[in-house]
Design a protein that fits this description.
Order of helices and strands: HHHH
Oligomer: single chain
Strand content: under 5%
Structural class: mainly alpha
Radius of gyration: 16 Å
Shape: elongated
Length: about 90
């Protein structure tokens, strides 16, 4: 019985981790949304993932954030991507 309970909760935890990772990759800035609101939404998802013990690489978080911004910000995204050293998350 304990083995089955452990498997049930472990699977749920693994599914939760996958769902949050998927959510993080799909976060996009909505039309009319401000940068601070977008970054808050992104940070909240990162915090949820961190609470499950998953620590993402900081440069991956920067890249995912840049990929989710609106097209009107793509010139900024292109300039950041062209830098020799990518911005850090802080």
């Amino acid at each position: 019985m304990w083995k089955e309970l452990r498997n049930l909760y472990q699977n749920s935890s693994d599914q939760r981790k996958l769902a949050l990772k998927d959510k993080l990759q799909k976060i996009e800035m909505e039309k009319g949304e401000t940068i601070p609101k977008y970054l808050t939404k992104f940070t909240q998802c990162c915090d949820e993932i961190g609470s499950l013990g998953i620590m993402g690489a900081k440069d991956d978080m920067v890249s995912l954030t840049l990929m989710g911004i609106q097209k009107s910000w793509h010139s900024y995204q292109d300039s950041v991507n062209g830098w020799e050293k990518l911005l850090d998350w802080e």
